[in-house]
């Protein structure tokens, strides 16, 4: 696996593609809510062991894309594949390789931290012994070992997010989708979570699609997909995107490309 | 990266299905234990009918000896099976509605990203809801026992399969309704257009022969109402008997409603409807 890891400024999507199927491929996906076109022929791919940022303002179509990729919405046209498995035709194979952290919280507040993990494990058909073992490991990784018996309601926002990430990784997926996972968190919790996910990419070789509208979460060496009003405006390295726009940083490149006012972007 | 990790085997083993079902039922039971208010309100409703309505109505309505009863019975004894089915009716509507709409949306996402087939996940959810409704019914029966509504001891065992079947039917009906009918946005709508008509046009509160005397048309409606058959199935089972007609109707409706619900179920409805402006789309 040479090249496309978040830390490496060299290499790229092309290098990783040669070694096997792409982690996520979105092919000509369009989606309508009634008359409104939410996604318009969206195509891009995420390579294994890559950190790809999906950058877009609120309403750009990020959450719709996530709902399609997890079969919460039916795909109207186009195709989405996870390691070559079509999410519509073979959802079982695709979902086994996929972990998701949705933007809204999806934990069971009344249940304990461990119970939430065990529930997820059961949904993946995991045996109880294996589930307990993996839960303990997962909690250790996100520093929540002490909180295993506590009700989720008592966790902080950052802890809940860490727990959701731990849960999404419990079945050992090869691709992790995160939909604005740091929204509403304080600076430290944001940095913790972003650092944790970047380590998953670098150390475990997990492909990550990180949807965000927060520019400071994106590094120059990250792959970038710019989604604006349901259309993909650009794909490729962030640094190239900035250079191509003739801008000095991502913010001005994004503003120049989309015509979005600076005020609508977070720092 | 192991190559085999990227080509997971097709399909799922019976053990995986079993663990998934167990996990879904286990979670529902845990939530049920944690949510005492839900439990209490599910019990208070039939008890109000029993303690107040039935006591007041006892003198108005005489009940003759009809199967499965072998003696004259108090009105309270007559309506008990109807109230048991009512518990399941409310439970079925509530849990199915909350499945599609707001409150459990987050949990539905968790459920539906499971790789197991969606029909299986929905059926497991139905089974879980049914288990909870059966627990509620037994709690009601326990209280009713002290109110002198006592079935033969074996009846408490024989009623179990009837309750499971009627619980599945009503849960599936709730899921079908919430998937298929767009107007029923809130529980008040469901109360007015589903629960009340089903409950009152049934044999819950009065034997059908009395309805027939009053209105032959209403009698036909009551006869065609699957809820009537759920009640009669439970009523007979509580006395160790099988009402074959009702069993056939409830069984057939259960299969039909489940097929319809799985076919019509669209997980997107809840959140698409809530964000018509696409603020987060």
From TrEMBL, chain A:
InterPro entries according to UniProt: AAA+_ATPase, ABC_transporter-like_ATP-bd, ABC_transporter-like_CS, ABC_transprt_ATP-bd_su_PQQ, P-loop_NTPase
Organism, scientific name: Alsobacter soli
Family: Belongs to the ABC transporter superfamily.
Membrane-traversing stretches: none
Annotated protein name in UniProt: ABC transporter ATP-binding protein
A molecular-function term among this protein's GO annotations: ATP hydrolysis activity
One Pfam short name: ABC_tran
ABC transporter domain segment(s): 24-254
Coiled coil: none
Matching PROSITE patterns: ABC_TRANSPORTER_1, ABC_TRANSPORTER_2
Keyword line: ATP-binding, Nucleotide-binding
SUPFAM superfamilies: P-loop containing nucleoside triphosphate hydrolases
Automatic annotation (TrEMBL), chain B:
Topology within the bilayer: Multi-pass membrane protein
Phylogenetic lineage: Bacteria, Pseudomonadati, Pseudomonadota, Alphaproteobacteria, Hyphomicrobiales
Domain (ABC transmembrane type-2) ranges: 37-268
Any single GO CC term annotated in Swiss-Prot or TrEMBL for this entry: ATP-binding cassette (ABC) transporter complex
Recorded superkingdom: Bacteria
Subcellular localization, as worded in the UniProt entry: Cell inner membrane; Membrane
Full protein name: Transport permease protein
Stretches that traverse the bilayer: 47-66, 78-101, 122-147, 153-177, 189-209, 244-265
PANTHER family: TRANSPORT PERMEASE PROTEIN (PTHR43077:SF10), TRANSPORT PERMEASE YVFS-RELATED (PTHR43077)
Family, similarity comment: Belongs to the ABC-2 integral membrane protein family.
Keywords, in A-Z order: Cell membrane, Membrane, Transmembrane, Transmembrane helix, Transport
PROSITE patterns xref list: ABC_TM2
Record organism: Alsobacter soli
GO MF terms, alphabetically ordered: ABC-type transporter activity
UniProt main location, coarse: membrane
């Amino acid at each position: 696996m040479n090249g496309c890891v978040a830390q490496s400024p060299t290499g790229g999507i092309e290098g990783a593609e040669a070694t096997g199927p792409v982690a996520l491929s979105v092919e000509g996906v369009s989606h309508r809510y009634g008359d409104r076109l939410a996604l318009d022929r969206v195509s891009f791919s995420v390579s294994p062991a890559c950190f790809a940022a999906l950058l877009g303002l609120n309403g750009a179509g990020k959450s719709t894309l996530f709902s399609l990729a997890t079969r919460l919405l039916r795909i109207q046209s186009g195709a989405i594949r996870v390691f070559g498995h079509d999410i519509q035709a073979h959802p079982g194979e695709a979902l086994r390789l996929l972990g998701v952290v949705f933007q809204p919280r999806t934990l069971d507040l009344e249940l304990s931290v461990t119970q939430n993990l065990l529930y997820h494990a059961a949904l993946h058909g995991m045996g109880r012994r294996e589930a307990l073992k993996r839960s303990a490991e997962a909690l250790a990784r996100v520093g929540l070992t002490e909180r295993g018996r506590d009700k989720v309601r008592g966790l902080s926002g950052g802890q809940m997010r860490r727990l959701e990430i731990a849960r999404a990784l419990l079945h050992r997926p090869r691709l992790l989708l995160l939909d604005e996972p740091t929204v509403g968190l304080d600076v430290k919790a944001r940095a913790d979570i972003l650092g944790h996910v970047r380590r998953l990419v670098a150390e475990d070789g997990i492909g990550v699609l990180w949807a965000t509208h927060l520019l400071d979460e994106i590094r120059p060496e990250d792959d970038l997909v710019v989604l604006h009003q349901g259309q993909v405006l650009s794909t490729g390295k962030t640094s190239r995107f900035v250079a191509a726009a003739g801008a000095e940083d991502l913010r001005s490149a994004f503003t120049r490309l989309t015509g979005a006012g600076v005020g609508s972007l977070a720092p | 990266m192991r190559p085999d990790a990227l080509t997971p085997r097709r399909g799922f083993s019976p053990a995986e299905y079993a663990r998934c079902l167990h996990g879904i039922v286990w979670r529902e039971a845990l939530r049920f234990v944690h949510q005492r208010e839900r439990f209490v309100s599910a019990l208070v409703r039939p008890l109000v009918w029993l303690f107040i309505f039935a006591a007041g109505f006892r003198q108005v309505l005489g009940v003759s000896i009809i199967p499965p009863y072998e003696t004259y019975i108090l009105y309270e004894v007559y309506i008990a099976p109807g109230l048991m089915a009512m518990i399941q009716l409310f439970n079925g509507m509530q849990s199915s509605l909350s499945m599609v709409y707001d409150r459990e949306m987050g949990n539905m996402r968790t459920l539906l990203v499971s790789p197991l087939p969606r029909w299986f996940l929905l059926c497991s959810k139905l089974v879980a809801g049914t288990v909870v409704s059966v627990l509620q019914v037994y709690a009601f029966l326990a209280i009713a026992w002290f109110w002198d509504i006592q079935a033969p001891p074996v009846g408490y065992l024989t009623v179990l399969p009837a309750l499971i079947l009627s619980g599945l039917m009503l849960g599936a009906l709730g899921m079908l309704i919430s998937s298929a009918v767009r107007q029923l946005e809130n529980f008040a709508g469901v109360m007015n257009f589903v629960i009340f008509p089903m409950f009152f046009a049934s044999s819950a509160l009065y034997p059908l022969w009395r309805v027939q005397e009053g209105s032959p048309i209403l009698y036909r409606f009551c006869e065609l109402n699957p809820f009537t058959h759920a009640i009669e199935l439970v009523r007979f089972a509580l006395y160790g008997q099988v009402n074959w007609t009702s069993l056939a109707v409830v069984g057939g409706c259960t299969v039909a409603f489940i097929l319809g619900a799985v076919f019509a179920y669209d997980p997107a409805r809840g959140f698409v409807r809530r964000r018509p402006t696409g603020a987060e789309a």
